[in-house]
Amino acid sequence: MPATTGLLRPGDVPGSETPSPEGGPVAQTLPPADVFAALGGDPGGLSDTEAAARAVRYGANELPHAARRAPWRQLAAQFTDLFAVVLIVASAITFLAWGLQTPRDSGTLQLAVAILGVVVLNAVIGFLQEYAAERTAETLQAMVPHACRVLRGGERREVPVRELVPGDVVLLEAGDAVPADCRLVEAYDLSVNNAALTGESDAVTRTAEAVAAGPVLQARNAVFMGTDVVVGSAKAVVCATGAATEFGRIFRLAAAAPRQRTPLQRQVAVMARRVAVAALATGAVLFAVRLPTGQSLVSSFVFALGVMVALVPEGLPATLSVSLAVGVRRMARRHALVKKLLAVEALGSTTVVCTDKTGTLTEAEMTVVAVWAGGVTHTVTGVGYAPVGEVSGDSQVHGLLRAAALCSDARLMPPSNHRGWRVLGDTTEGALLVAAAKAGLDPVSGEAATPRTAEYPFDPVRKMMSVVCAEPGVDGHRAYVKGAPHELLSRCSDIDWQGTPGPLTGDTRAAVAAAADELAGQGLRVLGVAARTVSGPRPTQDEAENGLTLLGLVGMLDPPRPEVSAAVAACRSAGIRIVMVTGDHPLTAEAVARRVDIVRTPHPTVVTGDQLDAMDDHDLDRLLAQSGELLLCRVSPEHKMRVVTAFQQRGDVVAVTGDGANDAPALKHADIGVAMGASGTDVAREAAVMVLLDDSFASIAVAVRLGRSVYQNIRKFLVYLFSHNIAELVPILAATFTGFPLVPISAVQILAIDLGSDVLPALALGTEPPEPDVIQRPPRSRDERLFSTDVVRRFLFLGSIQAIGVCAVFFWRVNSAGIPYSAFTSDNPVYREAITMTQAGIVVSQFFNALAVRTERQSVLRAGLFSNPRLLAAGALGIALMAAISYAPPLQAVFHTAPLSPADWAVLACLGLLLLVAEETRKWWLRRRKTLAEEGTHR
């Protein structure tokens, strides 16, 4: 349904496959009587036959479910990882080499099977983690009601919403969710809440009369799927269902937005390409170097394959998946549900948060916070619809709130069915009822004791509502009026001033006007309340609403969530910029932004949607480049997407929060979309990759902290994994250049280390808790490499120490045989002991390496050697597995190993301790250098 023309028939929707009903367009300019003919309907409703025919023609009234990849496709995608592709090719070539061997070597077959097993294991782990995370976040169509009331064949019926068709006559009442896009033909004091579509929390009035042509969402005689009836009742004709509705238009816009790759995805892809190229190139060079030495083609290939396998971190995909899954579970415990594993880390690198207002920063529950009566402002405590709080003041305040409650149509509903206190009807009137209850009044019994005899509903021209009630114990009737302060003030002749009625003089009028302006300047919605005695139960409207006595003013707001201010401060300390992007009025947006400390300066930059339309891309870029506080108000879904794209083009990592369907396109287009779980629409939750189960902005700050710790832990196990890859590669290179004919460590042994002894400690590193100062650090750049200079320098340092140690023990054991290198064969007992020493040396040193890399600068002794029991258990299990490979005959046959003596293990333990001491010395020097630099700065 186009947003720039009159209300059209379903077939006129651009891109919609829904055919048009018979008749012409259902424009908003038509009078109600002509709407039925235009849609081929009937005032008494469609017949069952016609409804069934239209159901076939138009389809079900539901939004299309987002396409999900079948589980087998998700599993297959795991095998497209570059590391997996390299290993699959290596396994295939090894199988081929085994087939060409004469005689065939079982060791070659074992290697081929082992490599393929590694690929399958990694794929299964990654699939299970991703599948579980995504299925945990299955969404429900919460905004679309399950049943609705219609007229069918002249009878009032309740039918499933999905069976609604264009031309149906729908009956709406206060509290109903609108089931489809409809044109009103009857409306009685009707107001609806369009927040799900427009982002505005204020209820808007609706009429059945024809209106001038204009934007559909501004048509006052139309209601839309997913919105709520706040007050009143209506009869409406369905003109669009399912994907042809305004809800559906935004759904299609969100579906068309491409899902952005996270920074970690980009970094891992770059790293995988570089490592794969380095592994293949190194293997090819050594194959070419070894072949002319007289080695057979197959043996030269197996040797080169060992080099390649040594360089490829086979365990990285599994450790990455599980580490991210640990982050998902940690966030779930903090009420943040993550649908995509990689979204965990993306939050940690966020530089800009574009946040909605209503329902995200605020409670989405109007609350009276101030009452002005008799020249004094009284405070009202408590937040939301729960009648818990106090009202300061005397009986005059109670009288004012009693009058306001009597002049209300809303109902305050107590908790039921796991739902808290809620309001049925207009939220503003609900706030008045709650305030009256806080003052000790009972709105229900008060209404029963004071029966209403006449009512003049609110309309936007008068800007007020009035009721006439029979006062108990008094032979007379009183009119109670509430409305816009300045309009109401003009109809008042007296004022209740400190409990004593008196004439409304020029000075008191000025005082009332100043009080109203002061409350409005605080971002409050202000209502005036007045009363008068009338001549009978049904006076004229003119009598009821003139000659009034002003009782006072009421100020209310949609209160900010109490935890938001602290969360905003945490995000600011983390170097994250917060930009409010809302469909609400600029003054309201700024007032809320100040309450939650998003705005702290006197003059923030406030830009409306119309101003955005007037900006070209260069102007928008200059606006976003300013470092000051920024509020974007009265914006559309297209505006939000444009702003998100502009931030991304500037190099920012953008998180977008929202709960309405109008937020969905930007949620999907952002680097990470964050939807509200409790109050959010289905469209918003489907578009987002993270759902806040408690709707709390504070959960974002917690998620940022956890996301940053995930990235830190990823870097830790990268150092851990690649340092031992160096220890695997260097002995092979050393053997080549010293003329030793055999490999110091076989490819099967390398795979055993990578998966048997390294994966579990790497996973344990992924469970390290966030470091204390992680939230105070600035976000990393989108362009920062995963293999930063610090990471590379650190794993080269640790890997070199390991490599020197294992080379030393290998050649020490080989030289102990006292025979030339050329005399060694693979069955030589000393050679088997030597390669066992190489493998065990790497495993033992990795145990100490895991302890060393737990911290970047802090001493591991200060962090606590035993503070990560999972890491100690994983390291012990790796050493136990190595012992089994050394001593168990079946494993000795597979790995060609030999038993090690206690003295051998003691030597290897000393090498591990040497590694830990060297790393602790390096950390001490870094801390010392930082201290000296700080002392030099203070001098």
Largest sheet: 9 strands, mixed
User: Hey, roughly how much beta strand do the residues contain?
Assistant: 15-25%
Note the gap between the termini: 69 Å
Morphology call: elongated
Low-confidence spans: 1-26, 136-145
Helix content: 40-55%
Helix/strand layout:
Layout: H1 32-39, H2 48-58, H3 71-77, H4 82-100, H5 106-136, E1 147-152, E2 155-160, E3 169-173, E4 181-193, H6 195-198, E5 203-206, E6 222-223, E7 228-240, H7 246-256, H8 263-290, H9 297-311, H10 316-333, E8 336-338, H11 343-348, E9 352-355, E10 367-373, E11 376-379, H12 395-406, E12 411-413, E13 422-424, H13 427-438, H14 443-449, E14 452-459, E15 464-470, E16 477-483, H15 485-489, E17 492-497, E18 500-503, H16 506-521, E19 525-534, H17 541-544, E20 548-557, H18 564-573, E21 577-581, H19 586-595, E22 605-608, H20 609-613, H21 617-625, E23 630-633, H22 637-649, E24 654-658, H23 664-669, E25 672-676, H24 682-687, E26 690-692, H25 698-738, H26 747-757, H27 759-765, H28 789-815, H29 829-852, H30 860-863, H31 869-887, H32 889-895, H33 902-938
Parallel strand pairs: 9-21, 9-24, 17-20, 21-23, 22-23, 24-25, 25-26
Antiparallel strand pairs: 1-2, 1-3, 3-7, 4-5, 4-6, 4-7, 8-26, 10-11, 10-20, 12-13, 14-15, 15-16, 16-19, 17-18, 19-20
